[in-house]
Amino acid sequence: MRPLVVIHRWLGIGLGPLVAMWFATGIVMHFVPFPNQSESQRVAGLSPLTLEVQVHGPADAVAALGAADGLRIRLIQRTDGPIYIASDGSTSTALRASDLAPATVRSRELALAIGADYARRRRMAAPDPARLALIDHDQWTVAGHYQRHRPLYHLALDDDARTEFYVSSTTGEVVLDTTRWERRWNLIGSVAHWIYAPALRSKPELWSAIVKWLSFAALTLVVAGAVLGVARVGIGASGRRRAIAACTGGTTCSACHR
What we know:
The protein is of the alpha+beta class. The protein contains nine helices and seven strands, in the order αααβββαββββααααα. A hairpin with a 5-residue loop joins strand 6 (about 165-170) and strand 7 (about 175-180). The chain has two domains: about 1-30 and about 205-245; about 35-190, no CATH class. It has a four-stranded antiparallel sheet. Strands 1-2-3 form a three-stranded antiparallel sheet, with helices on one face. Helix 1 crosses helix 8.
């Protein structure tokens, strides 16, 4: 039992504040999820197809890519025309539907136009051209499923909610939008809970190893505490029974007169 006491004591000193932080931030996460684009938001920002020029069929797009099975093909309308987006498990490719030429977003002007059209269709304010930046990742886009879209165009809207958009340079789609309210609450929620610092989270294997080992250590702390608690209750009860059995009936016996 002594080794278990030592393990529980020292793990408690080192991990007690972390476990308490996980508990508190988990409550925040229950009410404020990590920023993510819902399907309804994505659809609300889409432009209707306007096929004013002759376009190639999906089979032509697949043939142009030389793709194998498992490819998903979508046709969307961008501000610069209809675009085929081909996606597999880890990559995405954009082709112009008119001539099957690559359709990556290479200019700030096009990214700004895409963001402005998306905002207009969702009845939001227009993006601020002075606050457009090309980034690899930030606090809200470090997850692996954004890898196919990097680098990202980061746009800030001139509205009361301080909304920010992220436009994929690969497909030209708006892949995420956040508000100041979401960002502030997530700093004391998901970011703290998941140890989601960008410098660490951008290294998936290191981040995963740290989270797993900290979780294992915290689980050991909790299990050790539970075992010790049950053991102490048992020891206390048996000691009380022995005291009662040995009692001579005096008025000063604490076991009998408690």
